[in-house]
Amino acid sequence: MALEGLLKGFADFRLGYYHDHLDLFEKLASEGQSPKILIVGCADARVDPGILTQTKPGEIFTVRNIGAIVPPAQIPPDHRQHGTSAAIEFAVRALEVEHIVILGHALCGGIGALVDGDKSAFAGYDYLSTWTAVAQEVRDLALEELKDMPHEEIVRAVEQASVVNSVRNLMGFPWLAERVSSGKLALHAWWFNLTQGQLYAFDPAAATFKPVLGIEVIPTVAKGTSLSAIKPERLIAASARKPGF
Ligand SMILES: [Zn+2]
Asked: How far is the CA of 149 from the centre of ligand 1 (A)?
């Protein structure tokens, strides 16, 4: 049944959206893609970046994984299979995107599993905990600093701090940091609350996530930003002072 739904959806797309955007698809086919934005999102079925941002084909380059996580750069490269890093490299070096958005979200199962550790239902899986361990330090710090808070608030703090941690990891790729330094690239830490339908962006001055209300947003990292402003530790400390939203 589920697959029939997909095929019906594709039939509708072909006759409707594709037909209505024929010029766009012809242009994209003949000229190639030139998106200005890379979104690193979570694989979670509820948070499709294209739907959330109402973008058209060709507008966003997207990589989705468990937890919307960016792993640290491997320097020198270790020649293992780094899918997320390869997508980031192509977006930055080949497509020369102008913005990278890390899009975390509420009720994230991957981050929840990281927080629960050995108690998680997925603890024995082959790959999952190794992957989410990219944010292990953030998780450990949150468990220590926020130990008196309800579990859901700890998970939320780790979801958000992990997004900030991923932005920091982006800056470890030398060709990416160079483009930030020269003002050609800005980095954004965003978090989507699907129960409210509200988008939040990290405000480096306040070290917290604030609701995005209009079409202006302060980048988390741009030319001249001090990396000390975007320490996940600051956000966790701010969460301890002012839990929730
Ligand atoms: Zn998720």
From this structure: 21
For ligand 1, the distance from its centroid to the CA atom of residue 16, given in whole angstroms, is 31
Helix (H) or strand (E) holding 166: helix 151-170
Query: For 7-60, what is each residue's pLDDT tens digit?
Result: 999 999 999 999 999 999 999 999 999 999 999 999 999 999 999 999 999 999
CA of 113 to the centre of ligand 1 (A): 10
The rounded Å distance from CA 177 to ligand 1 centre is 26
User: How many C-beta atoms lie closer than 10 Å to residue 110's C-beta?
Assistant: 24
pTM, entire model: 0.96
Q: Cβ(232)–Cβ(238) under 8 Å? A: no
Confidence check: pLDDT of 68 > 90: yes
Question: Ligand 1 mean position to 148 CA, how many Å?
Answer: 24
